[in-house]
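So, can you check this record?

>
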Amino acid sequence: MTMDDHTGGVNSVAVLADGRVVSGGSDCKVKLWDPATGLVKTMDEHKSQVASVAVMADGSVVSGGYDGKVKLWDPATGLVKTMDEHKRWVRSVAVLADGRVVSGGDDGVKLWVPASGGVKTMDEHESDVCSVAVLADGRVVSGAGDGKVKLWDPVTGLVKTMDEHESNMRSMAVLADGRVVSGGWDGKVKLWDPATGDVATLRVDASVHCLAVRADAALLVVGLGNGGVHVFVAEPGVQPRLGSALER
């Protein structure tokens, strides 16, 4: 099945619990597609290309764009809320279980509470933030073009840093056990345990462009710049297997 309503490149996709698909594109539009019915809804309030999309538990859609805006769209009502405290490009968005929204951009990381409008900022990165993700306990993890990964606790303000990437950090994810996974243009995947500080490295044969994990298992999927895809099993305390040697 195909949805071809975008008039430019598709930069980000996400899947809702009911099987609908949301996409954000270089045509500045967010599309919500129901493969079962073929119905497509559109949110076109961004003024520049949409870089990242994510979904809330209630079916609302979050998007971040190069216009510096983060949008929260309720497709059922058409209502759109906007957080415009970023002054430069927004490159990545993610959502917390309690409805807060985290965004990463060229001017740092923002944590937004749509219900109240409150915003907190973590600006310790020295380069553009390319990817953000969240831990189950509400802490925020972010990776930037300087190769550093930051773990931020919005409650205490505490920031921890893992700086073992040698170049641009492009994508990240969080395993079910709380370990942070990051991939960079240095051809390495890092598994960082914030509790202990331990870092393990998986070497791959090209730059890492994207990562995904399966929520119910320590299954890690890595997409590479050369078109390859590697799958690793990364169980706690066990050397990741399937595809590459582990460097400590």
